[in-house]
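Quarterly update from the structural biology core.
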Amino acid sequence: MNNLWNSAQAAGFPGDIGQRVYTSRLIGADPSLVLHGGGNTSVKVLEKNLFGDEELILRVKGSGADLASIEAAGFSPCRMAHLVRLAGLDSLSDLQMASELRGSMTDPSAPAPSVEAILHAILPAKYVDHTHADALIAVMNTPAGGDRVREIYGDRVVIVPYVMPGFRLARLCASLLPREMSERTVGVALMGHGLLTFGETAEASYLRMIECVGLAEEHLARHGAWDLHPASAGESSPR
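Predicted structure, tokenized:
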């Protein structure tokens, strides 16, 4: 896993949103992290509302945005307080969730928020990165995948059983993470789905993502399952 962080380039993206744009593009530039544009990123910022009061706002990747080329306008501004309260509900249909996410936005002209906006909101860090890294998915989708993930990361990553992305996943994480997270936690492994890393700076969250995915790649390499060679033209496909 290549670390693409460049301090000189990063300096050209000032402010919290600028840093969010920069590392989002770094993630989006690597198809092994975000195949077909999957994955999402966010940052929590204080912004003044119409009355001059400061509100904590989650700027989360809008649905349909491409991380590889995202601009500041590609992030949806959602009121954190509303998202956190949604995570405490017992149930919420997909239609209700979409409506509530839209209703939480401070700018109705912005793109619709990612369906994982609530999950981003409940993670206690300023920056959150979420990828569907090939290497980690490959580890997860093996027999005893959870044990393998634990072998790779120890207690630095919280493991969450597979749940369909959306409200159910956010609700499960809202219940599980406060009990499982510690000062050593740098990420959350969503079984069969992907990886979340986080930090108080965009650089910290990004570097944790690169480190965690790199550890999964090393695990696969040790078991002879990473450096795969393409089949030759005359070689039949496995059945």
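The first strand starts at residue 40 and ends at 48.
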